[in-house]
Specification:
The complex is a heterodimer.
Chain A lengths: L19 H15 L21 H14 L3 E6 L3 H11 L4 E4 L14 E4 L6 H5 L3 E4 L3 E3 L4 E4 L16 E7 L4 E2 L2 H7 L6 E4 L4 E5 L2 E4 L6 E8 L7
Parallel strand pairs in A: 1-12, 2-3, 2-4, 4-7, 5-8, 7-12
Antiparallel strand pairs in A: 5-6, 6-9, 10-11
Chain B lengths: L10 H10 L1 H23 L4 H17 L1 H14 L3 E5 L2 H15 L3 E4 L3 H5 L2 H6 L4 E4 L2 H8 L16 H15 L11 H18 L2 E4 L3 E3 L4 E6 L3 H7 L3 E7 L3 E2 L5 H12 L7 E6 L9 E7 L3 H5 L15 H5 L1 H6 L10 H12 L4 H5 L9 H5 L6 H15 L5 H14 L2 H17 L8 H4 L9 H11 L2
Parallel strand pairs in B: 1-10, 2-3, 2-4, 4-7, 5-8, 7-10
Antiparallel strand pairs in B: 5-6, 6-9
Helix pairs in contact in B: 1-20, 2-12, 3-12, 9-10, 16-19
Classes of the chains: A alpha/beta, B alpha/beta.
The complex binds iron/sulfur cluster.
Amino acid sequence: MTTPSSSRPTPPSPPRSPSSASRERVLARIRAATAGAGEAPDVPRDYLTRHVPDDPEALLGLLHENLADYRAQVHRTTENELPQLIGRLLDRRGARSVAVPPGLPERWLSATTAERRGDEPRLGPYELDATDAVVTGCALAVAETGTIVLDGGPGQGRRALTLVPDLHLCVVRTPQQVVASVPLALARLGPTRPLTWISGPSATSDIELNRVEGVHGPRTLEVILVTGGPSDGH
Amino acid sequence: MSGVFVGMPAFPEAARTAVADATLRSNLRHATHTIRDKRARAVAELADWVELREAGRRIKEQTLRHLDRHLLRLEESVTGAGGTVHWAADAEEANRIVADLVRATGETEVVKVKSMATQEIGLNEALAAEGIRAYETDLAELIVQLGDDRPSHILVPAIHRNRGEIRDVFRSEMGKWGRPAPDGLTDAPAELAEAARLHLREKFLRAKVGISGANFMVAETGTLVVVESEGNGRMCLTLPETLISVVGIEKVVPSWRDLEVFLQTLPRSSTAERMNPYTSMWTGTSDDDGPSAFHLVLLDAGRTDVLADETGRQALRCIRCSACLNVCPVYERAGGHAYGSVYPGPIGAILTPQLRGTASGIDASLPYASSLCGACYEVCPVAIDIPEVLVHLRERIVERGGPGHRRERATMKAAGWVLDHPSLLAAGERLATRTRALHPRNPPGARAWTESRDLPELPAEPFRDWWRKNRT
Ligand code: SF4
């Protein structure tokens, strides 16, 4: 084993500029390796865009089922009841502090007594670690896989916010934020924002293939499916 | 490629030792069978699996055909999004680039998320030589690192360790690396995971530099994708100020849309899940989220040699799902270590000898560590015809080495090892005929690039004859 070393490395030198010699070398090797080869055939895209029919009620049911299958706690509520549900869930888990991403609707936290910690200015890693929970919205949810996707938009926050606290409450507005499949999700997401796809709480199967929930990410993921909300999608 | 396990005996000897180890065998058997069955169920859920597999294969073929173009596009996109791209022709150069980047930050430790590429190039050792400690953060990698061990499976590197062994390693070693294991730690998986969580959390929170690989790089957008389960990947990608990703050049895909294929086939093939718990995607740097400096190190290290081989190049399509390991009767009995490389199992048997050549006994013997049963091809989500490449590599080795040559003897022994295990061979004979019927013919126009010959005419009988003839 490499033993812990206390010696400081030699003083920093500026990062090297990209090695243009190696760049040319690698590119030349690639060109030599593929020279004279025929064209590769076109990519057939005759796979399905979705595996389930376009029925909002059925999609909601499927999303619920798949989220639960991967051990997310799933709840359904209405826009009106949402603050009470959030308050109850935070209480039930004993959360005394909650990280609040910029742009989270104020109403959502109107029925909780947990201390609110805004992220402007940014909470440091240790502050986040000392925060019990985080409440967010999402960019969309994928029914076929039981996945929620966050893109850092309003009410979602930067990635560390939903990673370090041990409890994540995520609100999904239905039906407008629910898509059927991975292909439909990708078509709606933009790559310019950092994206996090979450399917159930953090898990490992590294010990004799026993699934254990909660290694480094939040050990509890509560997903709240809001029905009958405003139809503007915000 | 410096990920050679020095002094590694050739496959047959290593395999013999492994087979004699009853614990290892039963761990492996339990693990591979569990994943194998779950995978079959996850795949059966998708009615268009055949089409997705074909699309995945063609996307990768297209990419490899114009790899130079896609890499240049990627470089432009990543640079445009605030990242810096470095090119490394070999392992040594990649290690040097990373070490220099870390030193420039003034830091002496880094957190790492599991990456086969960095294992392949021996990055941890190279960093250690510069006084930089690299902390592995996957639970399995942590087990391997603490136990001063070697990974034996692509996806579950500690598949050869059972819970009692893991507890012992945690108890005796964690304290030497940081926060010690809690008092009274038992071998309950949940307790072991909790011990790892506490041990690593302090490292994540103070980390200034993270090192990762990537499952995919999207040329048109400059987006990198990391697929994981535990959240240690998210920690490494999100909390540090500097992120360095070391990625093989074959990991590029042309378009954003291509992800719709692989994000469906990869999780189901590897962990047998509809979707893995966490997938992270990032494009360069962003002002208000994550690392403020991002470096992408593009790694060749033998990949262009593989690309030059018309038959062998299909190995570069691999998305490292490890499905082929879990169905392989030879892997199940021999274990990952017998392959003497970071890439074990069927994919290792065709990738390692191509990446580092067949000069050593172990590498020359790898293409013989198979009964050619074809189960690996059947499950591969990018349709790599592993038996075809194995036979091709055997031909290459035989062409190059004379009789009585050291490599020749090693290969004979490997073949002998397989042939001396009648159950393996029986499985091979049975399945070979079955899979052959499944082989899709090349569509018109495909021949020119793929040159994919039909599965070589190698029924079990001639193979055995050949073996008898050559046995010394
Ligand atoms: S060769 Fe195919 S089955 Fe094996 S790890 Fe690679 S992609 Fe998966």
